[in-house]
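Box S1 | Example of a co-folding query
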Amino acid sequence: MESYMENVVVIDHPLVQHKLTLLRNRNTGTKDFRMLLKELSTLMAYEVTRDLPMEEIEIKTPVAPMRSRVLAGRKLGIVPILRAGLGMAEGIMELIPAAKIGHIGLYRDPQTLKPVSYYCKLPTDTNKRDMIVVDPMLATGGSAAEGIRVVKEAGCKTIRLMCLVAAPEGLKLLHEEHPDVRIFTAAVDSHLNEHGYIVPGLGDAGDRIFGTK
Ligand code: PRP
Ligand code: URA
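Box S1 (continued) | Returned holo structure for PRP
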């Protein structure tokens, strides 16, 4: 195994892989793309939250008292990287409706492929939360690395990254810059093309979600 895969979890559940294939298909239109992305995010959220700490509390069922498990103390936040991350955040919120939501606005300069920042609003208690940064595409990794840097700067100690399709180039960059961050993805694709697009990928996620091309 390549060392940059150490912190990477590839979610190969059949439902995830089936829906990802539908999503990748160029014939899938905006409405279905949005729906599939949301469903995929809800399914992937199960894996992303699998190791959340738990504690036992005392309850009474209609039949008997018992000790039963609930999520322990720490609260969660979700940070979509705009625009495409919005489509994923919705799916996670289905499972974790009480999570606070931060937004980080970044677009990738088409010439330099470097992220350009245009918006940032994080929960004021980001330093007390575990954060899930979400963006469907991890290409060069520049956008995710910058988003994670900003969340760390706000004091957050535990960050997970949830994406859908990752390129080896992006995984390598994150391994170098944020080795403490666990990455959850549904696929690791072949490489980036000369325009920085993931091959085979699924095209421009933002444009496909919002119908802007
Ligand atoms: C896309 C995607 C990621 C970024 C990935 O956003 O949603 O944020 O590119 O590329 P990288 O890993 O090389 O940084 P884009 O810049 O197209 O903005 P958009 O979501 O507003 O369309
Ligand atoms: N951003 C996308 O939306 N798709 C890619 O393949 C690369 C960056």
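The chain has a mean pLDDT of 96. Residues 81-84, 106-108, 113, 115, 135, 137-144, 170, 196, 204-206 surround PRP (ligand 1) (CB under 6 Å).
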